[in-house]
């Protein structure tokens, strides 16, 4: 067997097209993207600062929230700076290995986010259904183990992707019809049999989304059952009110995923830029809106934010 048959040939760099069909609007599109990214940075950094500074917030719910804020920062920061460089300066070139690295961070931290949302559902389940055992169940060692498990699962599932992509020959155009290096967008440039990559990518996405969402739904079925058994309406409202922020985070994360998945299967003739805009929306919207949701609905965080502004105004 010749060497050319067993070694891969890949370009030194890919070219990120941006949003195909909307290249003439890149500068205008970048304005809301930049604004959203700035809000995400400010909101999540503020959350992390408040949780770290106040020992009273070193409780399971807030520790999981700190994990979510960190993940949101990495998710948005791994894609948005390069995306804005494409839109503003037409800096489309991205090194092959940098592309694979971006793809790894994008997909692994997306999986981690799903795991943390599931952990937060478990936190709410224990708090409402087993309130007397809350502190004994959700201990610091267990929270650490949950965080490590979320990271290990994500890394284990995503690590094969860069290695699978490195073995391909890339004989087509090096232009990626996307704003960032997404797995399937890179696979489309590869020559040869890419069926395993296609199947593996879809299987991981379906496994994570369906499994995590199923357990989240089960948690809320038990929570709803426990809430409805409370004697007074005020107690029910207060108990379920502690879940509103988490439900908002789940909706902000999974809604774009579900819409994108449905459109890929039902509306196959939809212009490519619609799918890309939905994908970018998934990356930008949760990191921006999650700090707002928790800041508005969580009294401890809201009071800290107001006190910060009050000190500055005095």
Main attributes of the structure:
mainly alpha; transmembrane helix; olfactory receptor activity; 314 residues; 3-stranded mixed beta sheet; olfaction; 14 helices; receptor; 75% helix; cell membrane; disordered N terminus; Rhopdopsin 7-helix transmembrane proteins
Question: What can you see in these coordinates?
Answer:
Odorant receptor. Belongs to the G-protein coupled receptor 1 family. It is a multi-pass membrane protein. Keywords: Cell membrane, G-protein coupled receptor, Membrane, Olfaction, Receptor, Sensory transduction, Transducer, Transmembrane, Transmembrane helix. One of its GO terms (cellular component) is plasma membrane. With 314 residues, the protein is mostly helical. It has a single domain (13-300), classed as Rhopdopsin 7-helix transmembrane proteins. It is 75% helix and 3% strand. It has 14 helices and three strands. It has helices at 3-6, 26-53, 60-77, 80-89, 96-129, 134-137, 140-158, 160-166, 183-187, 195-228, 233-241, 244-266, 272-297, 299-313; strands at residues 13-16, 93-95, 175-176. Strands 2-1-3 form a three-stranded mixed beta sheet. The radius of gyration is 22 Å and the shape is globular. Residues 1-6 have low confidence and may be disordered.
| Helical segment count | 14
Amount of beta strand: under 5%
By CATH, the architecture is named Up-down Bundle
What is the CATH superfamily classification? Answer: Rhodopsin 7-helix transmembrane proteins
Strand order of the largest sheet: 2-1-3
Count of the domains: 1
Q: Largest sheet at a glance? A: 3 strands, mixed
Strand element count: 3
Structural class by SSE content: mainly alpha
Average pLDDT reading: 88
CATH class: Mainly Alpha
- Low-confidence runs: 1-6
Shape: globular
Measure the end-to-end span: 77 Å
**N-to-C series of helices and strands:** HEHHHEHHHHEHHHHHH
The radius of gyration is 22 Å
Helix content: over 70%
Keywords: Cell membrane, G-protein coupled receptor, Membrane, Olfaction, Receptor, Sensory transduction, Transducer, Transmembrane, Transmembrane helix
Pfam family, one: 7tm_4
Protein name: Olfactory receptor
GO cellular component, one term: plasma membrane
């Amino acid at each position: 067997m010749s060497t050319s048959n067993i070694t891969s040939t890949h370009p030194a760099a890919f070219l990120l097209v941006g949003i195909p069909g909307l290249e003439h609007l890149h500068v205008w599109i970048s304005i809301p993207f930049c604004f959203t990214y700035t809000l995400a940075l400010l909101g999540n950094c503020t959350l992390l600062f408040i949780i770290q500074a106040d020992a009273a917030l070193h409780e399971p719910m807030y520790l999981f929230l700190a994990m979510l804020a960190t993940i949101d920062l990495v998710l948005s920061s791994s894609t948005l700076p390069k995306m804005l460089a494409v839109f503003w300066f037409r800096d489309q070139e991205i090194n092959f290995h940098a592309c694979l690295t971006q793809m790894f961070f994008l997909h692994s931290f997306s999986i981690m986010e799903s795991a943390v949302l599931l952990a937060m559902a478990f936190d709410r389940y224990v708090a409402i259904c087993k309130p007397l055992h809350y502190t004994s169940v959700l201990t610091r060692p267990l929270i650490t183990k949950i965080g490590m498990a979320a990271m290990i699962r994500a890394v284990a599932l995503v690590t094969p992707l860069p290695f699978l992509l490195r073995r391909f020959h890339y004989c087509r155009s090096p232009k990626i019809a996307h704003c960032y290096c997404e797995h399937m967008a890179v696979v489309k440039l590869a020559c040869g049999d890419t069926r395993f990559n296609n199947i593996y990518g879809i299987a991981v996405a379906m496994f994570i989304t369906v499994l995590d969402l199923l357990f989240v739904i089960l948690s809320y079925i038990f929570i709803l059952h426990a809430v409805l058994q409370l004697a007074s309406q005020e107690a029910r409202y207060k108990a379920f009110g502690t879940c509103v922020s988490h439900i908002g985070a789940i909706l902000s994360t999974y809604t774009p995923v579900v819409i994108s998945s449905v459109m890929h299967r039902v509306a196959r003739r939809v212009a490519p830029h619609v799918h890309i805009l939905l994908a970018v929306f998934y990356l930008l919207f949760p990191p921006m809106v999650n700090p707002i949701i928790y800041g508005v609905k969580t009294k401890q965080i809201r009071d800290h934010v107001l006190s910060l502004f009050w000190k500055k105004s005095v």
